[in-house]
């Protein structure tokens, strides 16, 4: 079991913007600092909420803006593309300047983007809102994992990552419930719901930044000093160009992390294919009522939150590689069953929930693998690589699968999604076999052997 202190540190890390954190850093951070940071924990919920505003109402958006699924897929992919390209710039801002500033930009731009979506008069303005929203979402991810890694003993790290993922799944599960609840009110539309979400994000951003600026010490919110090894050319780089080249050379010396980033890309492509189009599959492919189809998305993420906690325990109790591969196999088989179009509608809904949630069980195992394959000085950058892989999959999946649905239909498209999930499992096995010595060495170092 994870101790209370470990859980507090894990949950507190959800509120932190980008940046690296090393074990020595935590020795001087007092429990009161973490207690003050704790009110900012909804940052991961807010950002994941922004990621899935469109999927519950794709049919409505298509009708209101007179566009097809490929166009809306492009809009979702555009947000993910901006998110991907801004990962490292936000990391540089946080690592070299100020984390409160990074968090403020993240939450401020996210709220503005959601507000633009709520007011968008044309599809072109909808695209503008997606760009601004992507600029906001990009600011929060890579710091969480180094914080969790350094705050938690190796034997409990999988469970700590599962707490981190649990909050994200709550964010994913929120939009269908909020949109359905708000639109049930007289005179309210999806625009009303988006406006409420934007206002909530803005108010939360002000409160979170106030807490960090006034009640958390600079030692927590300011960047960490460089701790690169003396033999590392990053320590001697004097210009931005030299630092960038040194980072690229260091990354090239970590093929295992690049390979894990590719697995994250493949798995993310399958995940976002399911997430983006499972509602329309339920409506058009299986004849499920629109309200129930929309709530399928919420059920999927609630189930995913539970499976993340299970996955954390499994990752700590067993080796992370088999846990991750097994989760992807379960996703692939579930999606292939849906693609057969022979499942009764009453069973299609729970099967869709399983297809979209089973991958969450592998999240803590993937994060633990990345941790084991990293040194302490590279862990933040390496988790950024994993995040970039995830976001590239998010960029590719919506336009690709949206176009395929319109050109070939649901059976073929979801059959391909299932095959992609199985490919992620095969690639995971390949990485575990190829880098088994590195993984074993990382486990020994983390446990102090």
Number of helices: 22
Oligomer: single chain
Work out the number of β strands.
Answer: 0
What separation lies between the terminal Cα atoms? 22 Å
Question: Which stretches of 5+ consecutive residues score pLDDT under 50?
Answer: 1-40, 227-231, 443-449
CATH architecture descriptor name: Up-down Bundle
**Overall pLDDT:** 78
Class of secondary structure makeup: mainly alpha
The helix/strand order is HHHHHHHHHHHHHHHHHHHHHH
Short description:
With 449 residues, the protein is mainly α. Helix content is 78%, strand content 0%.
Provide keyphrases for this structure.
449 residues; single chain; Growth Hormone, Chain: A; mainly alpha
How are the SSEs ordered, and which strands pair?
Blueprint: H1 4-13, H2 23-26, H3 31-37, H4 43-51, H5 58-65, H6 69-85, H7 87-96, H8 99-119, H9 123-137, H10 144-151, H11 157-183, H12 190-215, H13 218-221, H14 240-252, H15 255-285, H16 290-317, H17 320-339, H18 345-357, H19 363-372, H20 379-408, H21 410-434, H22 436-447
Helix pairs in contact: 1-10, 1-11, 4-9, 4-11, 6-9, 6-20, 7-8, 8-9, 8-12, 10-11, 11-12, 11-16, 11-19, 15-16, 15-18, 15-20, 15-21, 16-17, 16-18, 16-19, 17-18, 17-19, 17-21, 20-21
What does this structure look like?
- By secondary structure, this protein is mainly alpha-helical.
- It has a single domain (4-224, 239-447), classed as Up-down Bundle (Growth Hormone, Chain: A).
- The chain has helices at residues 4-13, 23-26, 31-37, 43-51, 58-65, 69-85, 87-96, 99-119, 123-137, 144-151, 157-183, 190-215, 218-221, 240-252, 255-285, 290-317, 320-339, 345-357, 363-372, 379-408, 410-434, 436-447.
- The protein is globular and about 55 Å long.
- The protein starts with a helix and ends with a helix.
- 55% of the residues are buried.
């Amino acid at each position: 079991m994870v101790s209370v202190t470990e859980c507090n540190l894990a949950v507190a890390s959800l509120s932190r913007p980008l940046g690296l954190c090393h074990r020595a850093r935590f020795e001087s951070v007092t429990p009161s600092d973490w207690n003050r940071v704790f009110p900012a924990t909804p940052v991961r919920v807010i950002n994941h909420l922004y990621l899935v505003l469109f999927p519950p109402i794709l049919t409505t958006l298509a009708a209101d803006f007179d566009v097809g699924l490929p166009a809306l897929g492009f809009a979702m992919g555009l947000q993910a593309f901006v998110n991907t390209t801004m990962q490292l710039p936000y990391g540089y801002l946080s690592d070299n300047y100020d984390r409160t500033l990074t968090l403020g930009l993240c939450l401020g731009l996210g709220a503005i983007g959601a507000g633009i979506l709520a007011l968008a008069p044309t599809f072109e303005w909808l695209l503008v809102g997606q760009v601004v929203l992507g600029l906001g979402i990009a600011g929060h991810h890579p710091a969480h994992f180094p914080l969790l890694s350094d705050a938690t003993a190796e034997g409990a790290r999988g469970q700590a990552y599962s707490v981190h993922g649990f909050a994200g799944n709550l964010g994913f599960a929120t939009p269908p419930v909020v949109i359905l609840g708000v639109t049930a009110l007289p005179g309210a539309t999806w625009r009303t719901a988006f406006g409420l979400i934007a206002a909530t994000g803005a108010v939360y951003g002000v409160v979170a930044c106030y807490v960090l600026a006034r009640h958390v010490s600079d030692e927590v919110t300011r960047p960490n000093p460089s701790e690169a090894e003396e033999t590392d050319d990053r320590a001697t780089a004097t210009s931005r160009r030299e630092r960038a080249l040194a980072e690229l050379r260091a990354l090239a010396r970590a093929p295992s992390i690049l390979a894990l980033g590719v697995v994250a890309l493949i798995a993310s492509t399958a995940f976002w294919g399911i997430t983006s189009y499972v509602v329309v599959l339920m409506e058009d492919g299986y004849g499920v009522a629109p309200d129930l189809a929309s709530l399928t998305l919420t059920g999927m993420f609630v189930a995913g939150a539970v499976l993340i906690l299970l996955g954390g325990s499994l990752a700590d109790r067993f080796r992370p590689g088999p846990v991750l591969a097994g989760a992807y196999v379960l996703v692939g088989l579930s999606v292939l069953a849906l693609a057969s179009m022979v499942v009764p509608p009453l069973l299609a809904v729970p099967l869709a929930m399983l297809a979209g949630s089973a991958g969450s069980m592998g999240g803590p195992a993937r994060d633990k693998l990345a941790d084991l394959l990293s040194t302490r000085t590279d862990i933040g950058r390496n988790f950024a690589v994993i995040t970039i892989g995830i976001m590239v999959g998010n960029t590719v999946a919506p336009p690709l699968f949206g176009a395929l649905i319109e050109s070939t239909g649901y059976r073929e498209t979801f059959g391909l999604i299932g095959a992609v999930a199985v490919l992620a499992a095969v690639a995971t096995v390949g990485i575990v076999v190829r880098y088994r010595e590195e993984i074993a060495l990382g486990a020994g170092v983390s446990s102090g052997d």
